[in-house]
Amino acid sequence: MTGNKQSEYAPIKSLLLRWYEEHLAALDEEFRNKDALLQAFADAAQKGGMGDAVREALERIGGAAPPVAGESHAERVYRAHLEFEEKETSLESSLDARLRTDTANWWRHRRLWEPVFDCLSHTKNDRWLTVGDTFGSDAFQMMREGFRNVLPTSIGGTFLEDSKKRGLIAEYRVENAEALSFADGSFDWAVCREAFHHFPRPMVALYEMLRVARKGVVLIEPQDPMIDVPQYTGEPILGYEKAGNYIYTISRRELEKVVLGLDLPVLATRGLFDVYYEGVEELPASDAIPQFLEFRRQTEEGQARCAQNLQKNNYLLAIIYKQKLQEVDVTRYNGYWKITAYPGNPFLK
């Protein structure tokens, strides 16, 4: 670049440097090479307006793009999630890892699913909808358990199509959980496992699931540490994930208010303690492996502490029934579950 060109772009570089200091300094650990970042902005700036330049530069370094004109906050989260799916190469091998039944990750997912399977094993002939099922792995796991009619859905179809090509699922639908296209009561049940916390407006998604499900909705999600006893008493935990979402945790009390507001008859919940760290996807679930024994020990000891109310379960399993208690087989629920039948709104009778 000639001296004249350097002089011409010096103000732009100065402006970008100031913008970096004000807005990106906190990301310095991830983007250690400041000169490379500034050069990415400068290169993009020569191609068009600053809006496009910033967006293109951020895409080049793997960051989240800023809002598109006219885009709502919720739409921005949707877009960030889809872009994350497209760019995150680790997701390409995630389906293979999820299908393996000999890993610690399978062991922990089995722990999350098993109480629900036990309570709802009599619904295997019902029509089920999985929501936020990125890979279709929830549907696949349910069908492996004998559930015969399960339709997986997700906001993106890339990985669902891959699962279909592999023969893991017969069909799927690309659906926004907050605006499901199905008619009221199209399914008997809807289930959302470890996806609800990704949604920008999760309660909208819950009402949508309750709308399209005739019998009830199942959630398997991280539990809010600050609501219900024992409560976490420190500062609020502000958790975000790489996909661009805030981690929206749930609580029994929050779900109970939904049930009461809609005058629904029954809510069943139980807590579960879960351990996860990077690498469990490949960790063999074998007693011959010391790392797995340690992983299981941490899980079991955590569960024991929760049973003594020394700490709180970090997962909540919930079944919101639209059926009356008389239609619910309560004998399937063991002592770990809390099941409540509500008398109904007296002013609606």
TrEMBL record:
Keywords: Methyltransferase, Transferase. Pfam families: Methyltransf_11. Residues 131-219 form the Methyltransferase type domain. One of its GO terms (molecular function) is S-adenosylmethionine-dependent methyltransferase activity. One of its GO terms (biological process) is methylation. This is Class I SAM-dependent methyltransferase. It comes from Geomesophilobacter sediminis.
